[in-house]
Write a structure and sequence with these properties.
Blueprint lengths: L2 H21 L14 H15 L2 H14 L32 H14 L6 H15 L19 H7 L7 H9 L5 H8 L6 E3 H10 L5 H8 L11 E3 L11 H7 L6 H4 L8 H9 L1 H16 L21
Protein name: Peroxidase
Cofactor: Ca(2+); heme b
Subcellular location: Secreted
């Protein structure tokens, strides 16, 4: 082989390898040609949903978090149970509390009308989670795209890998570390609880049994969360601004007015106290760290390339 021929062959080989590598990676411009309007379509549908019910933004964000923590960001949480298949929707952390599936269905239908069999449910959920945060005044970030959808799900993994509202700081730290997320990511992502609500059954033990809680705040919450019964009664996670994304959550932690035990674990335990104080005083720092952590969360073990599929219906695998 001549020198010039070898050089051409080598260049083509490198390009081929780069092309193969990119095919298996997420990309900021993944749908630039195949579905250039996908982000606008998702944003429009989320705007309608959040105008109707601001809480929907955090419901979609929660779906995204619970999806990514179980076998990666693969839309497995969206799969319905069937006579022969048990998915994640009825796992303990999701049962009767996971919501927003109809919103994802609407977005998927809108996307399919413009770009048939092109955009995954996993990417739609990732974009919708980002847009919900933005719509309530939170930061924005660039979402790497190119995920594909799982053909299966794991109820057992959902039961064991999603943190509980009763989790200790050491448990939270180890569970996040298992997903490639460090303690700073944990503290920043927990700030998602600046919006949304929790049910009495998830915070009763904290307000009745914990010492690390402000007595007047506990008394307030007990008014709608009796010692027994009323498990489905709701209370805001952030008493100051339940429908606005901001750093008030961290101020609540310092005041020991956090609704969940797992949240209050981030303060008065030493290791995260300094960061909590920084976020409470510097909303820009919190916003930047939250955005960075959301990108990391969204890249946990995605299916790419020839793995998985592009579901036509987010609730079931393709026939």
């Amino acid at each position: 082989m001549s020198s010039s021929s070898y050089t051409t062959f080598l260049a083509l080989s490198i390009l081929s390898l780069l092309s193969f590598s990119a095919h298996g990676q997420l990309s900021n411009a993944f749908y630039a040609r195949s579905c250039p309007n996908v982000q606008a379509i998702v944003r429009s549908a989320m705007a309608q949903a959040v105008r109707k019910e601001p809480r929907m933004a955090v419901s979609i964000l929660r779906l995204f978090f619970h999806d990514c923590f179980v076998n990666g960001c693969d839309a497995s949480i969206l799969l319905d149970d069937t006579a022969t298949f048990t998915g994640e929707k009825n796992a303990f952390p999701n049962q009767n509390t996971a919501r927003g599936f109809d919103v994802i269905d609407t977005i998927k239908s809108n996307v399919e009308a413009r770009c048939n069999a092109t955009v995954s449910c996993a990417d739609i959920l990732t974009l919708a989670a980002r847009d919900g945060v933005v719509l309530l005044g939170g930061p924005t970030w660039t979402v790497p795209l190119g995920r594909r959808d799982a053909k299966t799900a794991s109820q057992s993994a959902a039961n064991s890998q999603i943190p509980s509202p009763a989790s200790s700081l050491s448990t939270l730290t180890s569970m996040f570390a298992a997903k490639g997320l460090d303690a700073r990511d944990l503290t920043a992502l927990s700030g998602a609880h600046t919006i949304g609500q929790a049910s009495c059954g998830n915070f009763r033990a904290h307000i009745y049994n914990d010492n690390n809680v402000d007595p007047s705040f506990a008394a307030l919450r007990k008014q709608t969360c009796p010692a027994s019964g009323g498990n489905s009664n709701l209370a805001p996670l952030d008493i100051q601004s339940p429908n606005r994304f901001g750093n008030e959550y961290y101020k609540d932690l310092i005041a020991r007015r956090s609704l969940l035990h797992s949240d209050q674990e981030l303060f008065n335990n030493g290791t995260q106290d300094a960061l909590v104080r920084q976020y409470s005083n510097n909303p820009a720092l919190f916003a930047a760290d939250f955005a960075n952590a959301m990108v990391k969360l969204g890249t946990i073990s995605p299916l790419t390339g020839a793995n998985g599929e592009i579901r036509l219906n987010c609730r079931k695998v393709n026939s």
